[in-house]
Amino acid sequence: MRIGTANFYQRSLVNLQTRQSNLDRAQEELSSGKKVIRPSDDPVASNSIIKLKKELEVSNRYIDAQSTATRYNREMETSLDSMNNILLRVQEILTGAINGSLDENALKAYQQELGSRLEEYEGIANQKNANGDYMFSGYQTRTQPFQQDEFGYFEYFGDSGQREVLIAPSFEVAVAEPGNQFVTNVASKYSHFRPAAAAASGAKVSLGFVKDPTEFKAPTAPANTYQIQFTGAVPPLADTWQVIDVSMAAPNVVSGPYNYAAGDDINFQGVSVKTNLNIPPQAGDTIDMQPDVKPNETSTLWLFKQAMDAMSITGNSYTTQAIQGSTLAITGGDINFPDEHKLADFEIVFPAAGLVEIREVNRATAPPTVLSTPVPAQAYNPAGTKIEFNGMELNLSGTPGNQTTIPAAPAPNYPESIQLDKPESSRRVEVLGTLLQEISSAQTNIDNTRSQIGARMNSIDNEEQAQLLFKETTKVTLAEIEEIDVYEAVTNLENSRVGLQAAQQAFSRVQNLSLFDYI
Prior knowledge:
By secondary structure, the chain is an alpha+beta fold. The protein has helices spanning 5-32, 43-97, 104-125, 300-310, 424-482, 486-511, and strands spanning 146-148, 154-156, 164-168, 171-174, 186-187, 193-195, 205-210, 226-231, 240-245, 253-259, 266-268, 271-275, 286-291, 297-298, 319-322, 329-335, 345-349, 355-362, 369-379, 385-389, 392-397, 402-404, 413-415, 417-421. It has six helices and 24 strands. It has a five-stranded antiparallel β-sheet with strand order 6-13-8-9-10, with no helix packed on it. A five-stranded antiparallel β-sheet has the order 15-24-17-18-19, with no helix packed on it. Strands 7-12-11 form a three-stranded antiparallel β-sheet, with no helix packed on it. Strand 22 and strand 23 form a beta hairpin. It is rod-shaped and about 155 Å long.
């Protein structure tokens, strides 16, 4: 068989190129660590590699989201823990302030500390996260959730939205708690009242809170509304107020009429309402006070304000409140004989000319219910009359008027009556006792929210472990498909190098052969 020189040369050259290509491939595999470098190397394997890499990218995004969710929830848990610690201190303050023997200086010190605790609590409630978003405002991340009105009461301006992050396929976890889920929904057994609108003059009043639980009575259905009415002998400014229950049959006055000066608090049926000193009501103004949307809930921030106000409730003597226009003068009211004293609300009435009578009453009803008559009708001298009862002494003087007000009997009109209220220190005890119960409810809200956050963080940890395991398994599968066996690659490289060298040497020798050498 004849073998042409050109043919042999061509075959040897192809062999050299193949050997060189094999060596290049072996070097490329070893340097890259991959056996599928281009899709054309193995189309089926390349498709699997693309899918596995996408799964790893998604897994990394889930792990990043889990880290973010953990950070946000940990920040919230830390904030709630701080809130709870503040409330624990508030409990200690209120418990100490219940002591009826505390003087005004001690109560003022408590009041100042409560103010500091309020600032601290409000700062946490309006806290921002690392991104500059408010943590407790729901979806309204750029809106400060708790803002003060002109009377110093905090209102919630966020919403009920709960931001969530996707941390696993079809699994979202919350990364925020709206403040109305644990700050403004504190369980309360007493209603609070909200003004339906400003008065015609533009005058406003604050929210109404129960400051005397023993005298509180909700307004009558179906209107469920108290109306504050302002009048004045010299308009336009009002100098008198009274409160009516709009659903009651006449007479419907539940409190008043009493003298009024701009900035005075208005107290009726155990409820206290603040007025604005700078925008005083005018004669003829009326303001409807209605139970809030959720009358059985209050705000933790309101509790601070109520507790601070309670520190101003001082005094160990019985106090009187005469109706507008009264000329009566009353002194005394000190408890001189504690062993003979019974804590109660009383009413001084003048059932007929020249007579005075003292009744024990329950002001939680409208009209007040007469419980007993510790001082039956006795002679009254307008020049001065001393009455001793219930371990105390009262001195009365002046001529009683004849007013239309709450009847103590079926008749709508009866002579002037004067409220004789329990000592302020005893009312402070009642108020603080109520606030302590509500503070406990606020702590329960925080504990429940922290439990939810803890459960979420456990879920995040579980998903993180699952994603890490999935990621490792996917990496192993990807390595089996894409990566080389180093020992095999080194062997291939060495074999390719030796084969190329042998082919080069053989080609060199054959290339130098000539038939003329054998002639």
